[in-house]
Write a structure and sequence with these properties.
Layout: E1 11-15, H1 26-29, H2 37-56, E2 65-66, E3 72-73, E4 78-84, E5 89-95, E6 102-109, H3 118-121, H4 124-131, H5 138-160, E7 169-174, E8 177-182, E9 194-202, E10 205-212
Antiparallel strand pairs: 1-5, 2-3, 4-5, 6-10, 7-8, 8-9, 9-10
Length: 223
């Protein structure tokens, strides 16, 4: 299922943060030198997955640094995304081209999202949609919405450098597919632009993925 989340040219690798002692490249160590063990384990497991995906693309593994905004620093010509929980980490890497300008991936443990968080995460249309569902489905569908927004945010950020609020994207589901629609214009994306994504359940996690292509990218759009 994971390998259908992105176009075939995007390589995905899977890891477990609990599998080994957390270690990484010296250039990476500085970013988590004072972090607790669980945070170090997740950080390095994610980068280990990213390097495996890089090897699958034919690239030599290298250190993956951290920008001031905490996003990964990818080698020239590559795009990538990392997400992790305490028990699972995923990374996706690809050559940047017109079909894949940027990618975003998010994983969350498949558990109910408390209703007191919905006002923060959901637009009024999304809350209305949730209210129309059977009561036993609402909290898990709200989680699906949350992780879809997170993956869309990660996909747009490298192209816009824009910090979005949850209400700036509106999600609609179509089976395993979803759209994330911009509710306001930001650099390179006009209001109403739809980012396309896919979502699956994998090892007790909801996994969401978005790939932005040149057909969705408008350099003339401004906030």
């Amino acid at each position: 299922m994971l390998w259908n989340l992105f176009p075939s040219e995007v390589k995905i690798a899977v890891g477990d943060p609990r599998a080994r002692k957390p270690t990484g490249y010296p250039d990476e160590e500085t970013h988590v030198a004072n972090a607790v063990t669980s945070r170090r384990s997740e950080f390095f497991a994610g980068r280990e997955c990213a390097r495996k995906a890089m090897r699958d693309l034919g690239f030599q593994p290298t250190a993956i640094g951290v920008r001031p905004d905490r996003s990964p620093i990818w080698p020239n010509g590559l795009i990538g995304t990392i997400s992790h929980s305490r028990t699972l980490c995923l990374a996706a890497v690809a050559l940047q081209n017109d079909d894949a300008l940027s990618i975003g991936l998010d994983i969350e443990p498949d558990s109910p999202l408390p209703e007191d968080m919905w006002d923060t995460i959901c637009t009024s249309n999304e809350r209305s949609w949730l209210a129309g569902l059977p009561s036993d489905q609402r909290t898990r569908q709200a989680l699906r919405m949350f992780t879809a927004k997170e993956s869309a945010y990660k996909a747009q950020y490298p192209l816009t450098q824009e910090f979005l609020e949850f209400e700036d994207l509106e999600i609609a589901f179509y089976g395993h597919d979803f759209s994330a629609v911009f509710q306001r214009s930001v650099p390179s994306f006009a209001k109403g632009t739809k980012l396309r994504g896919r979502q699956v359940i994998y090892h007790g996690h909801v996994v969401s993925a978005v790939c932005v292509g040149s057909d969705q990218f408008n350099k003339g759009a401004v906030s």
